[in-house]
Amino acid sequence: GGDHTITYPILQAVAEKHGPMGLVHVDAHTDTGDRALGEKIFHGTPFRRCVEEGLLDCSRVVQIGIRGSSYDPDPYEYCRQQGFRVVPAEECWRKSLVPLMGEVRKQMGDKPVYISFDIDALDPAYAPGTGTPEIAGLTPAQALEIIRGCKGLNVVGCDLVEVAPMYDVSGNTALLGANLLFEMLCVLPRVTTM
What would be the CATH architecture of the domain defined by 4-187? Predict the structure, then answer.
């Protein structure tokens, strides 16, 4: 639950201990806007604030599943200017993300990494219980490939945001969110899995 504004103070605390973070950000949106309704802190702005405060190692930021409507003709320009790797959803369609995650592991190296997963990265056919659904998203199997692909990284924290169970009477979004969080716990360093 919660929206992506929760990641901003978490990254402030984690970066205080570990320095600038690598980030595996799975989302339909880049969340790098400057302002919304005149406010600088908004669920669409946290990663811009993180860049401004030096909380991210921008050469080790990857955003996966990005898509949807935008107010900007080039909605990924800011991210690319910072050095982020942006992987739009259409680059993920109809294929395994295991090769992508091999590239991401090389990019992240052995330095600290944070995983931030917005449930709206998934297609609303699988996860309708979110406040900002966008069509043509990732599948649950691809979500597992992304998270399991983080095994072996120096993961120092993770979150899953924007699950809104009241928007999904089937309960599937909450079930999917709980399972994705469990998978994230399984890829933390020193966790033994069978």
Answer: 3-Layer(aba) Sandwich (3.40)
